């Protein structure tokens, strides 16, 4: 079945917002080094664009997680597929995500990262679907709040496709 992609946020809108968030982060972390933790694969496009716009010193690391299937999935317990390369001890950690949906994955992930002894852990997401939230997650930086629609582009996929779209689109299955 062919799906149709309808533009929700243009490339220009997304770029402009990432610049604003980058400016905000640069102000908030003045005099510090920020350690960006990217959750693969979806967060990678956003993280690269964001990192380029942050003016304080930046270091980067990547991790990949997947939800456990079956019963445990609803608990949000995640399996680490690829762990971070470096310890988080004494770092100012900023987790960079593509989207916060139910909040289950991130809630679990943030607790796990906080146990590794960082100075602080904050969360930055390009998109937020607040209507879908099941677990309370504090988001420190949000690009856009969006309605409960399935979106692709800028790292987000449908069946591993469309991650490379330079804009955010809604998938229509009609
Ligand atoms: P949750 O917040 O634990 O429910 O999981 C969020 C994850 O679900 C994201 O990191 C995405 O991988 C995926 N996801 C949620 N909503 C969408 C969407 O609209 N498009 C593509 N992926 C999505
Ligand atoms: Mg994700």
Produce the secondary structure layout.
Blueprint: E1 4-9, H1 11-28, E2 34-40, H2 43-52, E3 58-67, E4 78-82, E5 92-100, H3 104-114, E6 120-128, E7 141-145, E8 151-152, E9 168-172
Parallel strand pairs: 2-3, 2-5, 5-6, 6-7
Antiparallel strand pairs: 1-9, 3-4, 8-9
What this model shows, in words?
By secondary structure, this protein is α/β, with parallel strands linked by helices. The chain has three helices and nine strands; from the N terminus they run E-H-E-H-E-E-E-H-E-E-E-E. A six-stranded mixed β-sheet has the order 4-3-2-5-6-7. Strands 1-9-8 form a three-stranded antiparallel β-sheet. Helix 1 packs across helix 2. The chain is globular, with a radius of gyration of 16 Å.
In short:
This protein has 174 residues and is α/β, with parallel strands linked by helices.
Notable traits:
single chain, 174 residues, alpha/beta, 6-stranded mixed β-sheet, 3-stranded antiparallel β-sheet, globular, binds inosinic acid, binds magnesium ion
Give the averaged pLDDT, no decimals: 94
Q: What's the number of helices?
A: 3
Which range does the strand content fall in?
Answer: 25-35%
The neighbouring-strand order within the major sheet is: 4-3-2-5-6-7
Instruction: Pick out the low-confidence regions.
Output: none
The total beta strand count reads 9
């Amino acid at each position: 079945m062919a799906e149709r992609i309808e533009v929700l946020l243009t490339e220009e809108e997304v770029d402009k917002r990432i610049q604003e968030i980058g400016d905000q982060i640069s102000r908030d972390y003045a005099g510090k080094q920020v350690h960006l933790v990217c959750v693969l694969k979806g967060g990678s496009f956003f993280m690269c664009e964001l990192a380029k716009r942050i003016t304080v010193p930046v270091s980067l690391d990547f991790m990949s997680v997947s939800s456990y299937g079956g019963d445990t999935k609803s608990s949000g317990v995640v399996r680490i597929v690829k762990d971070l390369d470096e310890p988080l001890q004494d770092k100012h950690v900023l987790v960079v995500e593509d989207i916060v949906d139910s909040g289950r994955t991130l809630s679990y992930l943030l607790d796990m990262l906080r146990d590794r002894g960082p100075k602080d852990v904050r969360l930055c997401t390009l998109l937020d679907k607040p209507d879908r939230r099941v677990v309370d997650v504090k988001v420190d930086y949000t690009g856009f709040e969006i309605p409960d629609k399935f979106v692709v582009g800028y790292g987000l996929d449908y069946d591993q496709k469309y991650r490379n779209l330079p804009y955010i689109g809604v998938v229509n299955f009609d």
